[in-house]
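Checklist before submission:
- one chain only
- standard amino acids only
- sequence pasted in full

Submission:
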Amino acid sequence: MKKSITLVTGSNHTKEVLLEQLMDYLPADIEIKGYAFDEGIEGIVRDDLVILSSGTVKEDLINANIFDYNCDLIIAKRTINFDYIDNIVYLPIGTNVLFVNDSAEPTYDSIEVLKKIGFDYLNYIPYYPGHQGGFDDIKIAITPGEVDKVPSHIEKVIDIKARIFDFETIIEILKKLDLLDERTNLYSQKYLKKIINIAKRLSQSNIAVNELNKHLSLVIDGLNDG
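Returned file contents:
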């Protein structure tokens, strides 16, 4: 029997990123529909499986009275998109960075994820619309796709793109659709390939940095000889 999925997110940007991830891991015969609150949602949200990008989205659906409680439901857990973390690696230890997102919950969640995967040597200052605080002395911002919310005085913006479904959520989706045995190997292979590609890019960056340092050393030595 053909199954269908409905994804509901807060923003169109997040919707597009998560739809792409779902289409990458699910077979083509599963129909996937996507809705975002910032585009407006007409009618009742119902399907074989409804996936919400956050608990906040569930609250929005309930408040709008457009959610069918009889649907099979997954409230997604999301993580950093590792494809875009290269530029964070080279920030000096102890750098103050503004972490910019659209609301409090995903802001603090993202900071915790970055710390857990090893980026705990930076000083993160959370920032989201309505958050109060003095940020004028901070010149670098990291944001998961919310570039438009970065304060105008920031000199360097590192966009790590919208957060994606984490491993646990993808496995839960496959299980709900009775695809766990069929698709787990594919997902594992794609995940491993992504990690390998990140390692390759970082290695190439290190080689480029080392070559630049050698070149600068030769230039400086030449200046001293002169």
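Reviewer check: The helical segments are 12-25, 55-64, 86-89, 104-116, 167-176, 180-225.
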